[in-house]
Amino acid sequence: MKMKVSYLLRFFAVLGLVFTISIFGFAQQPDGRGGDGRGRGAGGAEGRGGGDARGGGGGQARGPQTPPPPFKPTASDTLKTKDGDLKITPVNHAGVMFQLGNGVLYADPVGNYSELPKADYILITDIHGDHMDPNAVKALSKAGTVVIAPPEVAKTVTEAKPLANGANETIKLNGKTVKIEAVPMYNMTRGPAAGQFYHTKGRGDGFIVDIGGKRIYLAGDTECTPEMKALKNIDVAFLPMNLPFTMTPQEAADCVKAFKPKVVYPYHYRDNDPATDPQQFADALKDTKGVEVRMRNWY
To answer: Vertex 182, ends 231 and 125: CA angle to 5°?
Structure first.
């Protein structure tokens, strides 16, 4: 009798072990997440704009990531220059396309540009992921495409020609001479901690692009610096206004009053964020003579 009880105890012990292993194995079956199961995006951006340029929010999303749809901008502006009409197309966040005849120049392309024209030139202002996107650069490049960027960007986008603050480069766009000047863009007060800045002086480039005698200022990520206030003869400016990384709309408007571009586009802001609503910027400049504010759809 004792032997039968012993066999029964062993039988139920083995049965319990098999059941436990089976349950554990079922719990470890793949759930469609792949890799480490976290489905992360590309990272590197600062959570700006209508999304953060990471293609998936960088969260814990399950399942395969769906690529973002291609950008299909439908609205452009035309700037008359001595070398012909310059077509200016806002694309997304800080991304702008400039077309002079058959020549195409982009600033800060990030995301899916697969249905837009290939680039002759690409300008990149900073290392953050809402300005620097190696995949977008690759998608837009063709034989002969030239990338111009700060030295810090060139460490990642290795094909880029480095251009430091204060330096300039002369290129040919549609056979016409275009001068590109790198200017400072940086924080003076804002940063992640005391004594630190989101954008240190000298790391990134703002750009002044002279096309057909028209001077176009791409501010990049910056506060209202003394260098910006001192700008002269700017025909078109693109100014950021998002917190905590750059400026408030009022700060950006105050800076515009100092250097008075003929046309200014608010860009690089947080979509649907009342604190960085570009309408505040437009309202602050409504009585400023000689300055036209152009509100466009960036998101």
So the answer is: 110
Q: Number of helices and strands (H, E) in the chain?
A: 6, 14
- Annotate 71-139 with DSSP letters as a single string: P-----EEEEETTEEEEEEEEETTEEEEEETTEEEEES--S--TTSPPPSEEE---SSTTT--HHHHHH
Where do the DSSP E strands lie in 186-257? 204-211, 214-218, 236-241
pLDDT for 232-248, tens place per residue?
Answer: 999 999 999 988 899 99
Measuring CA to CA, how many Å separate 262 from each of 104, 222, 232?
Answer: 23, 20, 11
Rounded CA separation 190/240 (Å): 14
pTM: 0.79
Establish how many alpha carbons lie within 13 A of residue 135's alpha carbon, considering only the half-sphere containing its beta carbon. Answer: 15
